[in-house]
Amino acid sequence: MTYFKFLRPGAVSPFTRYVWPVGEWVSVDATDLCRSGFHACALAHLPYWLGEELWEVELAAPVEESRHKVVARRARLLSRVEAWTPAAARDLGAACVARTIGHAVAELAEAGLREIARRLRDAEDAEIAVAAAHCAEQASAKGAWQAVTLCGYVSDAIEALEAYPVASTAYIAARAADQRTTAESDDPYAAERAWQAGWLATRLRLDRSS
Amino acid sequence: MRAADMSCDLVAGLMSRWWDGVMDDRDRDAYEQHLLFCPPCMVQNDKARIALTALARAAREPVPADLRRDLVALLRPMP
Protein backbone atom coordinates (compact mmCIF):
# COMPACT_ATOMS: atom_id res chain seq x y z
CA MET A 1 0.00 0.00 0.00
CA THR A 2 1.24 3.45 -0.87
CA TYR A 3 1.39 6.12 1.78
CA PHE A 4 2.15 9.80 1.41
CA LYS A 5 3.81 12.54 3.38
CA PHE A 6 3.74 16.29 2.99
CA LEU A 7 7.04 17.93 3.82
CA ARG A 8 8.64 21.34 3.75
CA PRO A 9 11.07 22.14 0.91
CA GLY A 10 14.12 19.88 1.06
CA ALA A 11 12.26 16.86 2.49
CA VAL A 12 12.02 18.51 5.91
CA SER A 13 9.38 17.49 8.44
CA PRO A 14 6.95 20.37 9.02
CA PHE A 15 7.01 20.30 12.81
CA THR A 16 10.27 18.74 13.98
CA ARG A 17 12.44 19.92 11.04
CA TYR A 18 13.74 16.40 10.68
CA VAL A 19 15.49 16.08 7.31
CA TRP A 20 14.43 12.85 5.63
CA PRO A 21 17.10 10.85 3.82
CA VAL A 22 15.65 9.81 0.49
CA GLY A 23 15.54 6.07 -0.14
CA GLU A 24 16.90 5.03 3.25
CA TRP A 25 14.99 3.17 5.93
CA VAL A 26 14.80 5.13 9.18
CA SER A 27 13.52 3.68 12.41
CA VAL A 28 12.56 4.50 15.96
CA ASP A 29 12.54 2.18 18.92
CA ALA A 30 9.63 3.30 21.03
CA THR A 31 6.39 2.07 22.37
CA ASP A 32 4.65 5.43 22.10
CA LEU A 33 4.19 5.40 18.36
CA CYS A 34 2.34 8.65 18.06
CA ARG A 35 5.05 10.63 19.76
CA SER A 36 8.08 8.85 18.39
CA GLY A 37 6.99 7.02 15.25
CA PHE A 38 6.95 8.18 11.67
CA HIS A 39 3.72 9.76 10.55
CA ALA A 40 2.32 9.44 7.06
CA CYS A 41 -0.98 9.74 5.22
CA ALA A 42 -3.36 7.50 3.41
CA LEU A 43 -5.12 9.34 0.60
CA ALA A 44 -8.06 10.40 2.79
CA HIS A 45 -5.71 12.03 5.31
CA LEU A 46 -3.90 14.28 2.84
CA PRO A 47 -6.09 17.41 3.00
CA TYR A 48 -5.43 17.73 6.74
CA TRP A 49 -1.67 18.01 6.26
CA LEU A 50 -1.12 20.02 3.08
CA GLY A 51 2.43 21.26 2.55
CA GLU A 52 4.94 22.29 -0.07
CA GLU A 53 6.33 18.89 -1.08
CA LEU A 54 4.40 15.63 -1.42
CA TRP A 55 6.32 12.36 -1.18
CA GLU A 56 5.46 8.69 -1.48
CA VAL A 57 6.58 6.81 1.58
CA GLU A 58 6.90 3.13 2.42
CA LEU A 59 6.07 2.00 5.93
CA ALA A 60 7.11 -1.27 7.53
CA ALA A 61 4.46 -3.26 9.39
CA PRO A 62 2.93 -2.81 11.86
CA VAL A 63 1.21 0.35 10.63
CA GLU A 64 -1.23 1.92 13.06
CA GLU A 65 -4.02 4.02 11.62
CA SER A 66 -5.62 6.85 13.52
CA ARG A 67 -8.22 9.38 12.50
CA HIS A 68 -6.01 11.61 10.37
CA LYS A 69 -2.76 9.70 9.90
CA VAL A 70 -0.89 6.42 10.02
CA VAL A 71 2.14 5.75 12.19
CA ALA A 72 4.94 3.19 11.91
CA ARG A 73 8.29 2.49 13.52
CA ARG A 74 10.16 2.17 10.23
CA ALA A 75 9.73 4.28 7.14
CA ARG A 76 11.42 5.06 3.89
CA LEU A 77 10.92 8.12 1.72
CA LEU A 78 10.55 6.89 -1.85
CA SER A 79 10.00 9.63 -4.40
CA ARG A 80 8.34 12.99 -4.81
CA VAL A 81 4.91 13.30 -6.33
CA GLU A 82 6.04 15.61 -9.10
CA ALA A 83 2.52 16.65 -10.00
CA TRP A 84 2.19 18.49 -6.66
CA THR A 85 3.65 21.80 -7.76
CA PRO A 86 3.00 25.39 -6.61
CA ALA A 87 0.62 25.67 -9.57
CA ALA A 88 -1.30 22.59 -8.45
CA ALA A 89 -1.46 23.93 -4.91
CA ARG A 90 -2.78 27.22 -6.26
CA ASP A 91 -5.43 25.37 -8.27
CA LEU A 92 -6.54 23.48 -5.18
CA GLY A 93 -6.73 26.79 -3.32
CA ALA A 94 -8.87 28.27 -6.11
CA ALA A 95 -11.10 25.19 -6.02
CA CYS A 96 -11.50 25.64 -2.28
CA VAL A 97 -12.46 29.30 -2.77
CA ALA A 98 -15.10 28.15 -5.28
CA ARG A 99 -16.38 25.58 -2.78
CA THR A 100 -16.57 28.25 -0.08
CA ILE A 101 -18.55 30.49 -2.41
CA GLY A 102 -20.85 27.56 -3.13
CA HIS A 103 -21.52 27.07 0.57
CA ALA A 104 -22.25 30.77 1.02
CA VAL A 105 -24.55 30.87 -2.02
CA ALA A 106 -26.47 27.83 -0.75
CA GLU A 107 -26.79 29.33 2.73
CA LEU A 108 -28.10 32.64 1.32
CA ALA A 109 -30.62 30.78 -0.84
CA GLU A 110 -31.79 28.65 2.07
CA ALA A 111 -32.32 31.85 4.06
CA GLY A 112 -34.67 33.03 1.31
CA LEU A 113 -32.17 35.54 -0.08
CA ARG A 114 -32.13 34.12 -3.59
CA GLU A 115 -31.38 37.37 -5.44
CA ILE A 116 -28.42 38.08 -3.17
CA ALA A 117 -27.25 34.50 -3.61
CA ARG A 118 -27.43 34.87 -7.37
CA ARG A 119 -25.35 38.05 -7.22
CA LEU A 120 -22.60 36.27 -5.30
CA ARG A 121 -22.72 33.22 -7.54
CA ASP A 122 -22.46 35.31 -10.72
CA ALA A 123 -19.75 37.71 -9.53
CA GLU A 124 -16.59 37.89 -11.66
CA ASP A 125 -13.41 36.71 -9.97
CA ALA A 126 -12.13 40.24 -9.35
CA GLU A 127 -15.45 41.28 -7.80
CA ILE A 128 -16.08 38.36 -5.48
CA ALA A 129 -14.60 39.96 -2.36
CA VAL A 130 -16.72 43.10 -2.82
CA ALA A 131 -19.78 41.00 -3.67
CA ALA A 132 -19.27 38.86 -0.55
CA ALA A 133 -19.03 41.95 1.66
CA HIS A 134 -22.14 43.41 0.03
CA CYS A 135 -24.05 40.13 0.43
CA ALA A 136 -22.99 39.95 4.09
CA GLU A 137 -24.42 43.43 4.69
CA GLN A 138 -27.71 42.53 3.08
CA ALA A 139 -27.92 39.20 4.90
CA SER A 140 -27.22 41.02 8.15
CA ALA A 141 -30.06 43.44 7.48
CA LYS A 142 -32.36 40.42 7.10
CA GLY A 143 -31.05 38.75 10.25
CA ALA A 144 -29.62 35.80 8.31
CA TRP A 145 -26.65 35.46 10.63
CA GLN A 146 -25.34 32.14 9.38
CA ALA A 147 -25.31 33.50 5.84
CA VAL A 148 -23.33 36.50 7.12
CA THR A 149 -20.77 34.10 8.57
CA LEU A 150 -20.53 32.16 5.32
CA CYS A 151 -20.01 35.37 3.31
CA GLY A 152 -17.23 36.22 5.75
CA TYR A 153 -15.58 32.90 4.96
CA VAL A 154 -15.64 33.82 1.28
CA SER A 155 -13.67 36.99 2.06
CA ASP A 156 -11.27 34.99 4.25
CA ALA A 157 -10.74 32.38 1.54
CA ILE A 158 -9.95 34.97 -1.12
CA GLU A 159 -7.45 36.65 1.20
CA ALA A 160 -5.89 33.30 2.16
CA LEU A 161 -5.52 32.31 -1.48
CA GLU A 162 -3.23 35.29 -2.03
CA ALA A 163 -1.41 35.44 1.29
CA TYR A 164 -1.32 32.04 2.97
CA PRO A 165 -0.43 28.42 2.21
CA VAL A 166 -3.04 26.30 0.49
CA ALA A 167 -3.70 24.58 3.83
CA SER A 168 -5.39 27.82 4.95
CA THR A 169 -7.79 27.98 2.02
CA ALA A 170 -8.61 24.29 2.34
CA TYR A 171 -9.29 24.73 6.05
CA ILE A 172 -11.58 27.72 5.43
CA ALA A 173 -13.61 25.71 2.91
CA ALA A 174 -14.00 22.90 5.46
CA ARG A 175 -15.02 25.40 8.13
CA ALA A 176 -17.54 26.95 5.74
CA ALA A 177 -19.06 23.52 5.08
CA ASP A 178 -19.25 22.96 8.82
CA GLN A 179 -21.16 26.21 9.33
CA ARG A 180 -24.01 25.42 6.95
CA THR A 181 -27.43 25.43 8.62
CA THR A 182 -28.52 22.33 6.76
CA ALA A 183 -25.86 19.77 5.97
CA GLU A 184 -25.95 16.75 3.71
CA SER A 185 -23.56 14.89 5.98
CA ASP A 186 -23.28 14.09 9.67
CA ASP A 187 -19.82 15.62 9.60
CA PRO A 188 -19.71 18.37 6.96
CA TYR A 189 -16.14 19.30 7.91
CA ALA A 190 -14.93 15.76 7.20
CA ALA A 191 -17.06 15.58 4.06
CA GLU A 192 -15.38 18.71 2.70
CA ARG A 193 -11.99 17.23 3.50
CA ALA A 194 -13.05 14.08 1.62
CA TRP A 195 -13.93 16.24 -1.39
CA GLN A 196 -10.46 17.76 -1.21
CA ALA A 197 -8.89 14.29 -1.06
CA GLY A 198 -10.82 13.41 -4.21
CA TRP A 199 -9.54 16.56 -5.90
CA LEU A 200 -5.96 15.61 -5.00
CA ALA A 201 -6.42 12.03 -6.20
CA THR A 202 -7.77 13.15 -9.55
CA ARG A 203 -5.37 16.02 -10.18
CA LEU A 204 -2.26 14.20 -8.98
CA ARG A 205 -3.37 10.80 -10.30
CA LEU A 206 -2.86 9.21 -6.92
CA ASP A 207 -3.66 5.60 -6.26
CA ARG A 208 -7.21 5.67 -4.86
CA SER A 209 -6.69 2.37 -3.07
CA SER A 210 -4.14 4.02 -0.79
CA MET B 1 -10.72 18.58 20.03
CA ARG B 2 -10.76 19.33 16.29
CA ALA B 3 -8.55 21.77 14.44
CA ALA B 4 -11.66 23.82 13.82
CA ASP B 5 -12.08 24.35 17.54
CA MET B 6 -8.49 25.34 18.28
CA SER B 7 -7.83 29.08 18.46
CA CYS B 8 -4.45 30.80 18.18
CA ASP B 9 -4.63 31.64 21.91
CA LEU B 10 -5.17 27.99 22.75
CA VAL B 11 -2.29 26.94 20.51
CA ALA B 12 0.01 29.43 22.22
CA GLY B 13 -0.87 27.94 25.60
CA LEU B 14 -0.21 24.39 24.42
CA MET B 15 3.25 24.76 22.90
CA SER B 16 5.21 23.35 25.82
CA ARG B 17 2.76 20.44 26.17
CA TRP B 18 3.19 19.70 22.46
CA TRP B 19 6.96 19.78 22.82
CA ASP B 20 6.80 17.54 25.90
CA GLY B 21 4.71 15.05 23.91
CA VAL B 22 2.00 14.83 26.54
CA MET B 23 -1.00 15.74 24.37
CA ASP B 24 -3.38 12.97 23.39
CA ASP B 25 -3.48 11.95 19.75
CA ARG B 26 -6.61 13.91 18.85
CA ASP B 27 -5.43 17.16 20.44
CA ARG B 28 -2.00 16.77 18.93
CA ASP B 29 -3.52 16.38 15.45
CA ALA B 30 -5.67 19.46 15.99
CA TYR B 31 -2.69 21.43 17.25
CA GLU B 32 -0.43 20.47 14.34
CA GLN B 33 -3.16 21.00 11.75
CA HIS B 34 -3.69 24.48 13.15
CA LEU B 35 0.00 25.21 12.61
CA LEU B 36 -0.27 24.24 8.95
CA PHE B 37 -3.05 26.65 8.14
CA CYS B 38 -1.88 29.41 10.47
CA PRO B 39 1.62 30.59 9.49
CA PRO B 40 1.99 32.98 12.48
CA CYS B 41 1.41 30.11 14.91
CA MET B 42 3.85 27.92 12.93
CA VAL B 43 6.52 30.62 13.34
CA GLN B 44 5.86 30.83 17.09
CA ASN B 45 5.93 27.04 17.37
CA ASP B 46 9.27 26.88 15.54
CA LYS B 47 10.74 29.48 17.92
CA ALA B 48 9.38 27.66 20.96
CA ARG B 49 10.69 24.31 19.70
CA ILE B 50 14.19 25.73 19.19
CA ALA B 51 14.19 27.40 22.63
CA LEU B 52 12.83 24.37 24.48
CA THR B 53 15.26 22.05 22.71
CA ALA B 54 18.17 24.29 23.71
CA LEU B 55 16.93 24.45 27.30
CA ALA B 56 16.60 20.68 27.48
CA ARG B 57 20.11 20.25 26.11
CA ALA B 58 21.48 22.73 28.64
CA ALA B 59 19.68 20.94 31.46
CA ARG B 60 21.46 17.70 30.56
CA GLU B 61 24.92 19.28 30.70
CA PRO B 62 26.81 18.75 33.98
CA VAL B 63 27.13 21.89 36.04
CA PRO B 64 30.79 23.03 36.19
CA ALA B 65 32.28 22.42 39.64
CA ASP B 66 33.11 26.07 40.33
CA LEU B 67 29.62 27.18 39.34
CA ARG B 68 28.10 24.46 41.56
CA ARG B 69 30.26 25.63 44.47
CA ASP B 70 29.22 29.25 43.96
CA LEU B 71 25.55 28.33 43.76
CA VAL B 72 25.71 26.23 46.92
CA ALA B 73 27.39 29.11 48.67
CA LEU B 74 24.64 31.45 47.58
CA LEU B 75 21.99 29.07 48.89
CA ARG B 76 23.58 28.71 52.33
CA PRO B 77 21.64 30.48 55.01
CA MET B 78 23.05 33.83 55.91
CA PRO B 79 24.73 33.98 59.37
Overview of the molecule:
The complex is a heterodimer of chains A (210) and B (79). With 210 residues, chain A is of the alpha+beta class. Chain A folds into 2 domains: 78 residues, no CATH class; 119 residues. Chain A has 7 helices and 7 strands, in the order E-E-H-E-E-E-E-E-H-H-H-H-H-H. Chain A has a 4-stranded antiparallel β-sheet with strand order 1-4-7-2, with no helix packed on it. In chain A, strands 3-6-5 form a 3-stranded antiparallel β-sheet. The radius of gyration of chain A is 20 Å and the shape is elongated. Chain B is an all-alpha fold and 79 residues long. Chain B has one domain. Chain B is built from 4 helices and no strands. In chain B, helix 1 crosses helix 2, helix 1 runs parallel beside helix 3 and helix 2 packs across helix 3. Chain B is elongated, with a radius of gyration of 19 Å. Chain B starts with 7 loop residues before the first helix and ends with a helix. Classes of the chains: A alpha+beta (210), B mainly alpha (79).
The ordered string of helix (H) and strand (E) elements of chain A is EEHEEEEEHHHHHH
Intertermini distance of chain A = 6 Å
Q: Which word captures the global form of chain B?
A: elongated
Shape of chain A: elongated
Fraction of residues of chain A in helices? 40-55%
Major beta sheet of chain A, specifics? 4 strands, antiparallel
Total domains of chain A? 2
How would you classify the helix and strand content of chain A by structural class? alpha+beta
State the low-pLDDT regions of chain B, or none: none
Average pLDDT of chain A: 92
Tally of individual helices of chain A: 7
Encode the helix/strand succession of chain B as letters: HHHH
Protein name (chain B): Putative zinc-finger domain-containing protein
Organism (chain B): Actinoallomurus vinaceus
Keywords (chain B): Transcription, Transcription regulation
Domain Putative zinc-finger (chain B): 8-41
